[in-house]
C-alpha cells in the first residue's frame, strides 16, 4: 500500500460521511425558500458534493426567471464565482457543467458588470474546459456555447 493512501475502511468512512452530508443538505433544503444567498451559501458549504452544486445552479436558473433585479443580486451574492468554482471542482460531472453553464448564461446575459465579473472569475476558461472534457455531450456543448455568447456579447 502507498504511504498516506487511505485504507479501504477509511474510504468507506469517507463515502459514508458524504452520504450523511448529502442527506443533511436535503433535509435542510426541504421546504426552504430559495434565495440567491442561500444557494451561494450551500455551494460554499457543500462544495465537494456535485449533487448540491448541480441543484444550486438549477435553482439559480429558476430564480433568474422570477427574481426582480436577479443579475445584480446574483453578482452581489457571489453567485458567479460560486458557479465557476463548482465547474472547477467537478470537471468530470457533465450535469454540473451543464447546470453551471446555464446559470452563467442567465446571470450575465446583457449585464455588462456581470459579464466583466464572469470574465474575471474565469468563466470563459471554465466553459471552454467543459466543452473540451464533454465533447460528446450535446447538452454541455449547447449550454457552454450559450454561456460563452452571454459572457462576450
TrEMBL record:
<dbReference type="InterPro" id="IPR000225">
    <property type="entry name" value="Armadillo"/>
</dbReference>
<dbReference type="InterPro" id="IPR011989">
    <property type="entry name" value="ARM-like"/>
</dbReference>
<keyword id="KW-0677">Repeat</keyword>
<protein>
    <submittedName>
        <fullName>Uncharacterized protein</fullName>
    </submittedName>
</protein>
<dbReference type="InterPro" id="IPR016024">
    <property type="entry name" value="ARM-type_fold"/>
</dbReference>
Amino acid at each position: 500500500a502507498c504511504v498516506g493512501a487511505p485504507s479501504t475502511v477509511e474510504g468507506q468512512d469517507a463515502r459514508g460521511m458524504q452520504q450523511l452530508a448529502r442527506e443533511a443538505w436535503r433535509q435542510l433544503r426541504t421546504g426552504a425558500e430559495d434565495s440567491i444567498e442561500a444557494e451561494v451559501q450551500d455551494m460554499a458549504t457543500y462544495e465537494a458534493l456535485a449533487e448540491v452544486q448541480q441543484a444550486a445552479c438549477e435553482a439559480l436558473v429558476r430564480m433568474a426567471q422570477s427574481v426582480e433585479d436577479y443579475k445584480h443580486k446574483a453578482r452581489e451574492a457571489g453567485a458567479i464565482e460560486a458557479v465557476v468554482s463548482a465547474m472547477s471542482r467537478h470537471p468530470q460531472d457533465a450535469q454540473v457543467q451543464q447546470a453551471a453553464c446555464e446559470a452563467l448564461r442567465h446571470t450575465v446575459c446583457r449585464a455588462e458588470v456581470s459579464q466583466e465579473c464572469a470574465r474575471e472569475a474565469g468563466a470563459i476558461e471554465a466553459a471552454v474546459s467543459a466543452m473540451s472534457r464533454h465533447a460528446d455531450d450535446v447538452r454541455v456543448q449547447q449550454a457552454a456555447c450559450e454561456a460563452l455568447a452571454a459572457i462576450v456579447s
